[in-house]
Design brief:
The chain is α+β, with helices and mostly antiparallel strands and 612 residues long. Helix 7 (205-212) links the parallel strand 5 and strand 6. The structure holds 2-acetamido-2-deoxy-beta-D-glucopyranose (NAG) (5 copies).
């Protein structure tokens, strides 16, 4: 039975795919208060919704690029729910529900109730409340991971720190119970629950009563005032006495063997923050969905966290032994383990960062630049409820907080590249002078950290930021004066990713019109060396069936192009075909690839933009 379920799960994975759900810039400004933990703006749904764009990448992997859909949902988050409804704890487990990570079926007559409750947390609370706190989950580790054994007596202990704000009883306590049930007691020193000013009545005494009888030391810390993720985590960290701090979001479920690989990595390599593979708990059915392991955390030009497909370089690094933790330029931030002493030594968090957003970027750059590593352990799997939108909102508006936080990260860690970020983000630029960063700069100098240039070269060689040896600017079609644009996404309109377009150029910086070309020199015959044409979101110009498409940058030669400065052509390396405007019967305005004929349709100017 269990085997069949595992097989079903695996089949689901094979049929389904690699999915990237790119977080959009949250544009909402609500007046409620709150934060949501990292990952929540990075949902990875298995369904193909309207807002998602999909394509097959060069490895034949089905990639879906979706977007944060916060704006399209009506806010405030739960307009018609009364205090009484919000304070009710309807946890009502049925033993067979959700077993082995199976979906919970909501019967037709329950739909309206489930939809109404959905608005509280932006997940299906009715489904969650039916699943026992100790539900079983399949062991989704790879065979080579299951084969590893650890000497528990030699591993460090951990304090698991879980911050919550008005979390549902069932999701919060399933997180706690899954940690207790799936961690060797010897390694689980304590669980610290940090309540960031919740006011749901069931999270008060009932919570304390419930955890007081559990077989693990559980400490509940409460903040009366809303302090946000960073300061709440710091509050938990100050109290912690285990050797390692393991931070988890409040709606997770750990799976078999999740803890040992994290602790083992820290034991053998103390200067590391190590993340588990984050699997998916459906926000709708609470089914466990296995996520594709071949992706890693990165960021966009806006410094928003992104999942990107693993590059060729990373794949090559991993090929030796797929069970070894791998390099991760940016961590998602919700779930990771770090040595308690190292956490202190490396400067904890920037406690001037409010609510949430950007703290994972700051921490990732800091750890890497100051001599540590951020990694993902493929043998540790923790499932997380990915929501399609945040149930919380930001006091003072999301932009103010998020962009202040991002401005801080850029000012402290990005050196000359910060100008690139600020030029791309006028909102953040307006907030830069208001930041006082002296203590973070002195931390940086005390730790003798490397610069951002070092980070780009060594940690993220496949990055798509501009650089001194790269072209950065617009690609303009000479005859029409129009700009090459990569597909825009989202905006609530279903739009398949892929086709490049020619559109009127705009004066201001617009990321969809800005390109990096990695060719850096010209040969005697007037051709540049081959290079990649990259845009934000790690998209590269690719050639597919006569069409010029934006596809995930793969590092494969298939995506190499060169510019011929004599003919002004942009030539595809493998095929020798030229980038061209569409010809009838193709749709006007789209960009194609045709055999080179020197015509005006194939002549391009690369117009550099100054960025630093
Ligand atoms: C919520 O309340 C408003 C006004 O009080 C009402 O018009 C609306 O229909 C209600 N919505 C739901 C889903 O009950
Ligand atoms: C979960 O806990 C209940 C009692 O609370 C117990 O009867 C049941 O066997 C447990 N299930 C598992 C899978 O451990
Ligand atoms: C909880 O806080 C919200 C606003 O933050 C308030 O509207 C609500 O009345 C409070 N509920 C309780 C039970 O105190
Ligand atoms: C892979 O690395 C692990 C340590 O993480 C080691 O125990 C294992 O033997 C290695 N496997 C192979 C095939 O080298
Ligand atoms: C061009 O790029 C190659 C590969 O990245 C590098 O080895 C070379 O030094 C660069 N040349 C210049 C002039 O920047």
């Amino acid at each position: 039975m269990r085997f069949i379920k595992c097989v079903k799960l695996l089949v689901a994975v094979v049929v389904s795919l690699f999915i990237l759900w790119l977080a959009n810039k949250p544009r909402n400004t609500h007046d409620d208060s709150g934060w949501d933990l990292k990952n929540d703006d990075v949902a990875i749904p298995i369904k193909f919704g309207k807002n998602q764009r999909e394509y097959i990448d060069s490895r034949g992997i089905h990639v879906v690029v979706g977007r944060y859909v916060g704006d399209s949902l009506p806010g405030p988050s739960h307009p018609n729910l009364t205090e009484e409804v919000l304070n009710q704890n309807n946890f009502n487990p049925i033993p067979s529900q959700g077993e082995w990570g199976e979906p919970v079926a909501i019967l037709p007559h329950e739909h309206s109730k489930s939809q109404s409750l959905y608005r509280i947390h932006r997940f299906n609370l009715l489904a969650s409340d039916r699943i026992p706190l100790n539900r079983t989950l399949p062991d989704i580790r790879k065979p080579q991971c299951k084969a590893l054994s650890y000497n528990i007596n030699e591993l460090p202990t951990t304090s698991v720190i879980i911050v919550f704000h008005n979390e549902a009883w069932s999701t919060l306590l399933r997180t706690v119970h899954s940690v207790i049930n799936r961690s060797p007691p010897k390694l689980l020193w304590e669980i610290i629950l940090v309540d960031d000013a919740s006011n749901r009545t069931f999270l008060k005494k009932p919570l304390e009563d419930h955890v007081s009888v559990l077989p693990t030391t559980i400490i509940v810390l409460r903040s009366e005032k809303r302090i946000g993720l960073v300061r709440a985590r710091l509050m938990g960290a100050r109290e912690a006495t285990g050797d390692v701090l393991t931070f988890l979001d409040a709606h997770c479920e750990t799976t078999d063997g999740w803890l040992q690989p994290l602790l083992y990595r820290i034991k053998t390599n103390p200067n590391v923050a190590v993340c588990p593979i984050i699997d998916i708990i459906s926000d709708d059915t609470f089914a466990l969905l296995r996520s594709f392991e071949l992706h890693h955390g990165g960021m966009s030009w806006n410094l928003h966290f992104r999942w990107f497909g693993a590059s060729e370089t990373l794949m090559a690094e991993r090929r030796g032994n797929m069970s070894i933790p791998f390099r991760t330029p940016v961590m998602a931030g919700g779930l990771f383990a770090i040595g308690r002493d190292y956490f202190q030594e490396i400067g904890t968090y920037d406690d001037q960062m409010d609510i949430w957003g950007g703290e994972n970027i700051e921490m990732s750059l800091r750890i890497w630049q100051c001599g540590g590593r951020v990694e993902t352990s493929p043998c540790s799997h923790v499932a997380h409820v990915f929501r399609k939108s945040s149930p919380y909102t930001f006091p003072g508006g999301v932009n103010q907080i998020l962009y202040s936080n991002l401005a801080r990260a850029a000012l402290v860690w990005m050196d000359e590249w910060k100008e690139f970020f600020f030029k791309m983000n006028p909102e953040a630029n307006r907030l830069r002078d208001a930041q006082s960063i002296r203590s973070r700069l002195s931390l940086r100098s005390r730790l003798k950290c490397n610069d951002f240039n070092w980070y780009l070269k060594n940690v993220w060689p496949e990055n798509f930021f501009p650089g001194p040896d790269r072209f950065f600017g617009k690609i303009i079609h000479r005859a029409t004066g129009k700009c090459l644009e990569r597909p825009l996404g989202g905006g609530g309109v279903s739009q398949p990713i892929g086709r490049l377009k020619l559109v009127p150029c705009v004066q201001q910086w617009f990321d969809a019109h800005l390109w990096v070309a990695t060719w850096n020199s010209t040969r005697k015959d007037g051709r540049t060396l081959p290079g990649y044409l990259m845009s934000d979101e790690s998209l590269c110009v690719d050639h597919l069936d006569g069409e010029a498409r934006a596809m995930a940058c793969s590092g494969f030669s298939k995506q190499l192009w060169h510019h011929n400065l004599r003919t002004n052509a942009i030539v595809h390396g493998n095929s020798g075909l030229c980038l061209s405007i569409s010809r009838p019967p193709e749709t006007p305005g789209e960009v194609s690839v045709h055999s080179c004929d020197g015509s005006s349709e194939q002549q391009w100017t690369l117009q550099p933009e100054k960025w630093s």
